[in-house]
């Protein structure tokens, strides 16, 4: 807590946990303070730069209205951690939380959360754009987008507070810092939202019952759906092994990357199995039957 309050970052959005004594503990969103404090103890040379530090963790805050499925609450965006420049990375999505405006003349893009922007009627916002924009103070159409990443040019904001320096040929200098946040769980939600809507453009959200994943992060790269064992056209174990070996061999042009799911559930029909695979969002479904010569 003492390290965190050294920079006087705001506490209200954070989950506060009373300690066994009078000490107040918090669930910290990001760890620039701790990392800078650690780096300050290393007495680094300029020859060791740049230094890359990685923080992989879930972020939580006291969110009153968690929503959006995979963007599960109360998981949170790290908020403004300060610095010289702040850049956000968005993907267009109907369930997005941010209104992003784009100038049709100079292609300037910015978040409607910026000071000076206020709501107007319909899906337009009355905005006060920066002076260099040719549509200064005009109403702009916006689109809803989902923030998936954020980067900050921190400069010397943290290194100055914690005296984090390195030794250069001309003497001791303050570290110049930047941080880059990527929302892994948010990317999962955005992938599903975007690709599923693209696959079913004529259906409403309530009508869509299937998922679409990017091939490289799908739970399985493909699935093989088998008939019931009692069916006349079902395959035997040797035939199934031959099919699997063929699919995964280097001798064919088309090769599935990753694991392949074999749906051999005995009690379900072929149609029900195919429906389940579609709901999982498996990219390729191979239906295997034995050709019976009539």
From TrEMBL:
Gene3D superfamilies: Anticodon-binding domain, Bira Bifunctional Protein, Domain 2. Coiled coil: none annotated. Keywords: Ligase. One of its GO terms (molecular function) is proline-tRNA ligase activity. SUPFAM superfamilies: Class II aaRS ABD-related, Class II aaRS and biotin synthetases. The keyword Ligase applies. The keyword Ligase applies. GO terms for biological process: prolyl-tRNA aminoacylation. This is Putative proline--tRNA ligase, mitochondrial.
